[in-house]
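Dear H.,

Thanks for agreeing to be a second pair of eyes. The structure we're designing against is below in token form, covering all 137 positions.
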């Protein structure tokens, strides 16, 4: 697999798939201009399927994975210590999907994180003190 250029967070994924989502237009535009496949993780997929519920949007998510438009990186159990440490450092702020996206950013330092959560991702630091390159509204 070639090095990913974009790591995908939950917000833009849900926004892309759900026409009623507040981030739909923004996400649609970003997906149109950014290269695929994008890289994400199982925690983002889990969060997105919860937010999308059952129906056509969730079905399109699985189709994107099957067609290779999304690469889903397995992070557990190998990356669990780093994810756990990040969650402890940002206790009360970072959820599992955020921590996993940050870990992917550490593992793929040249990739940008596509997120609708710029407020948190501008605060988070990878490798304890590095800013995370993000694409956010």
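And this is the sequence the design step returned. I haven't edited it by hand at all.
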């Amino acid at each position: 697999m070639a090095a990913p250029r974009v790591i995908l967070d939950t917000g833009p994924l849900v926004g892309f798939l759900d026409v009623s989502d507040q981030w739909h237009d923004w996400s649609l535009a970003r997906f149109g201009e950014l290269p695929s496949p994008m890289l994400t993780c199982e925690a983002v997929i889990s969060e997105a399927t919860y937010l999308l519920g059952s129906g056509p949007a969730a079905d399109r998510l699985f189709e994107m994975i099957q067609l290779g438009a999304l690469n889903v990186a397995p992070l557990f159990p190998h990356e669990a210590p780093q994810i756990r440490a990040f969650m402890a450092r940002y206790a009360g702020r970072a959820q599992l999907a955020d921590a996993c996206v940050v870990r992917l950013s550490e593992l793929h330092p040249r990739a940008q994180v596509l997120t609708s959560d710029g407020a948190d991702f501008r605060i988070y630091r990878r490798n304890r003190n590095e800013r995370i390159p993000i694409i956010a509204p």
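Two observations from my side: Strands lie at 6-8, 38-41, 70-73, 112-114, 125-126, 130-131, 134-135. The first helix runs from residue 10 to 17.

Warmly,
E.
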